[in-house]
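As a warm-up, study this chain.
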Amino acid sequence: MIINNYHTHSNLCDGLGEIEDYVLSAIKLGCSEIGFSGHSHAPWDKTCLGMDKEKLEKYKEQIELVRQKYRDIKIYRGIELDYYSEIDTKDFDYIIGAVHYVKKGEEYIPVDYKVDILIECVNKYYKGDFNEFVADYYNLLGTLYNKTKCGIIAHIDLITKLNKNERLFSQNGAIYQKTVINCLEKLDNAPVLYEVNTGGMARGYTTSFYPQDFILDYLGKKGKTFILSSDCHNSDMLLYKLKESKEVLDNKGYKVAKDISSV
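Now compare it with the structure written out below.
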């Protein structure tokens, strides 16, 4: 099986390097396809995560240029659409749905930005109760398909990215796991692929891919289909740990999509 990556970020959002750099890396690695998935515009976000109107036009133009220049590899123009983003998605080949923020009142709390900011927000808006914050995150995720009509669910348990050594909440406790399963039950009829995402590993935040084992096994035993993703932000790491992830899934007998044709 040729391994490709469809979750790719260039310097037009929060990635490093030009779009062409990633295409050249894909060709060098023997990929048959590559998909770009720049972040959707999030006007409330102070970290400039998403692509504003000007960057979005550049994104479309640059992908069209590499499509014309490199005809031996198929190049997709996708979008990573946040739950709260309101953009027209008709010009994209596919949508990766994601929850990067939890809205509390008028405040958008970043799920995966900086741990000190997250703790400050949870103290302020949840009186320090991370279980309530986690519940709000998974409530959003459970309705992500209905909100975005995405074909791929990104990094299901992204909320664990800053939870090194369970410093914020227990990922193995009954409260957390029940919250997650309730979310997955809401997604049960959604026609989506679920990411096995190595991005946290690639950037040194986690020691294993998203999702953690009990989520992976719940979905796998339900017969859901996974898609390999490096959530790439650096062209040198385009296929980071994807071969190893594929081996884990194969050994468990879980379904892995060969490409995004089913999206």
